[in-house]
Amino acid sequence: xxxxxxxxxxxxxxxxxxxxxxxxxxxxxxxxxxxxxxxxxxxxxxxxxxxxxxxxxxxxxxxxxxxxxxxxxxxxxxxxxxxxxxxxxxxxxxxxxxxxxxxxxxxxxxxxxxxxxxxxxxxxxxxxxxxxxxxxxxxxxxxxxxxxxxxxxxxxxxxxxxxxxxxxxxxxxxxxxxxxxxxxxxxxxxxxxxxxxxxxxxxxxxxxxxxxxxxxxxxxxx
Length: 222
Hints:
By secondary structure, the chain is an alpha/beta fold. The chain has helices spanning 19-33, 40-43, 51-59, 63-77, 91-100, 113-122, 144-154, 170-178, 193-199, 208-217, and strands spanning 6-9, 16-17, 86-87, 104-112, 129-135, 163-167, 182-186, 203-205. It folds into two domains: 6-17 and 86-217, HAD superfamily/HAD-like (Rossmann fold), CATH 3.40.50; 19-83, Putative phosphatase, domain 2 (DNA polymerase, domain 1, Orthogonal Bundle). The strands form two sheets. Strands 5-4-1-6-7-8 form a six-stranded parallel β-sheet, sandwiched between helices. Strand 7 (182-186), helix 9 and strand 8 form a beta-alpha-beta unit. Helix 1 (19-33) crosses helix 4 (63-77) and helix 5 packs parallel to helix 10.
């Protein structure tokens, strides 16, 4: 494959392990909604897709109730849940090495853009990114496909062969395909190999170290 200049990175499950903050925020929202709290395995499903979709899919909410639940979620998340997480081991080194190699790192997340920036600042990672693309609070831009399209447009990426999307869930792979760019699925996040292969990931990496080797050497599927 040709060299990638623009590397789009998902946030939750790719840069940070955000499970504690997201699941605690969902539990808070469900309690305030008067709904039962499902097992942790179900709560993990909220990591990745847009929140409103998660409340509909996993909790059986209609759109109106889901929208209200998102507001409750953000009450907790914006103050507490946002920082309940940790950076994956090896990711700071990954970002530093790619930055030093002259790559343009772009955060592409379904999380609201305003939160994504605060998280990168909190974990001292913002310095590595040339652009942050996220969802809008009004849901006008929420899907990963829309976020990637926004990132591509704002960064003037005319040759899409120069861009790659890195993420841990099928939404990342689907979004890349919908925008005509390559994709790498990572196995250290919240997805799994079967999900990523079924979505058609072009490459799969098991660790941040393997991901770095892939993105720098770009000679084989790791």
